[in-house]
Every structure is written in C-alpha cells, then in structure tokens.
Amino acid sequence: MEGDCLSCMKYLMFLFNFFIFLGGACLLGVGIWVIVDPTGFREIVAANPLLFTGAYIMLAMGAMLFLLGFLGCCGAIRENKCLLLFFFMFILLIFLAELSAAILAFIFRENLTREFFTKELKKHYLRNNDTDVFSSTWNSVMITFACCGVNGPEDFEAVPPLPHSPLESTTPEACCQRELQSREGVFVNREACLTGIERFQNRQGCYTVILNSFETYVYLAGALAIGVLAIELFAMIFAMCLFRGIQ
C-alpha cells in the first residue's frame, strides 16, 4: 500500500510539474519572441516602457518556471533525492520572497496614497529632464496613460518651468494630447497645450486613471496570489513526502 501511495504521488508530482514546465516554456518563448521579433512588434514594445518592462518580467518568470518544472519532473520520475531537494529549496525561496513582498506591501501600503504621490511629485519632478529617473518615469506614465500629474495639471503649479521652454507655463509637455500615446506620438497642438488651452491637455490625474485601469484586476490578482502560494505550499509538501519515501 505504501509503495502504491508513493508511486501515485510520484506521477501526480510529475504531471503537476510537467504543466509548470510547459507554462514556463510558453512564457519564455513569448518573451523571447517579443524582444527579438523583427517584424515591428519589438519597436512598439521598446517605445512603451510598461510593455518593455513587462516583456522582461515575462522572460524572467518563464525561465524560473521552466527551471522549476524541469527540476520537479526529473526529480519525481527518476526518484532523485538531490533534484527533489533542489526543487524544494527553490520553491521555498520563492515562497518566502512572495510572502515577504506581501508583508512589506501591507506595511507600506500608506505610501501608496494620493497625498504621498502628490507630495513626491511636487518635490522631485524636473519636467523634461530625461537624465533624472524620477522625472523620466513620471513623463512615461503620463504619456502612456494620457493623464497629467497625480490629481491633474494643477499639481505642477509649484514646479518652475524649464528656462529654455518659454511656452511652457505650468503644464509640462508630457501632459499634452498626442495622436498616439507614446513618446513618438505627434502632438495634437503642442503650442496651444503649453500656453494653457485645456482642450489640448490631458486633464485627468494619473492616480484615478491608473486606479480605474487596474481596479478590475485587484481581486483577480489577490485570488491568483493566494492560489499560487497554496500550490507552492502543496508542491513543497509533495516534494518532501516523496523525498522521505525514496529509499
């Protein structure tokens, strides 16, 4: 009976990790294709910082899942205690990292308020200074999401205009409407926007726009995170049971 139970656990673990292996291989393949694709998709991704970052996150996640599935499959089917131990340690490290990230996110959740972002924007924003990481990131966010500041253009009233931009009064160039929402997108009317004509500006604050964009995914992401943690916990239990059962 014990041998049958061990054999059943072995094949269940192999099947479980085979799907992880396939999922990792798919993510890895898509990530590589997005980055090296010569047909023009690469340029679209490179022009959008969020897509560009997402492509590399997808690549890293794919590689991690690919390796994880491979270790689990080989360790289970060959009943290799060394591979099973590596698999267990790898899963444990990922589990602890995710748990730490969740705890830190809960502790520092007050730093994600509208007031915090508004204060940081007014303090550190340097308009079109692309050598400044903070300003460049904010400009990319405002261009990508067609928004302006945290609450709206009024956030920039305390930010002095650049000396070489006589047209720019309070509204930065990144808040001007474009025909295509990317850095390469043509302005609808740059001069009118910078001189304060509202219909050529993105008036909605980024905090509201981004919150609305991701609101529908919050509960899904939370459920997915709990599901992933549960799967990792069961994977560690299976690996240890199989490890202890192998003679």
Molecular structure report:
Its main location: membrane. There is one protein chain. With 247 residues, the protein is mainly alpha-helical. It folds into two domains: 1-111 and 210-245, no CATH class; 121-204, no CATH class. The protein has eight helices and no strands. Helix 3 runs antiparallel to helix 4. The chain is elongated and about 80 Å long.
Brief summary:
The chain has helices at residues 2-36, 41-47, 49-77, 81-107, 114-124, 133-145, 190-194, 206-245. The protein is mostly helical and 247 residues long.
Considering the chains and any ligands shown, give keywords for the structure.
247 residues, mainly alpha
Largest sheet: none
Q: Could you tell me the number of beta strands?
A: 0
- List segments where confidence is low: pLDDT < 50 over at least 5 consecutive residues: none
Mean residue pLDDT: 75
- Percentage of residues assigned to helices: 55-70%
Distance between the termini: 16 Å
* Helix run count: 8
β-strand amount: under 5%
* H/E series: HHHHHHHH
The computed structural class is mainly alpha
Rg is: 25 Å
Overall number of domains: 2
Give the overall silhouette: elongated
Protein topology:
Elements (H helix, E strand, L loop, with lengths): L1 H35 L4 H7 L1 H29 L3 H27 L6 H11 L8 H13 L44 H5 L11 H40 L2
Helix pairs in contact: 1-3, 1-8, 2-3, 3-4, 4-8
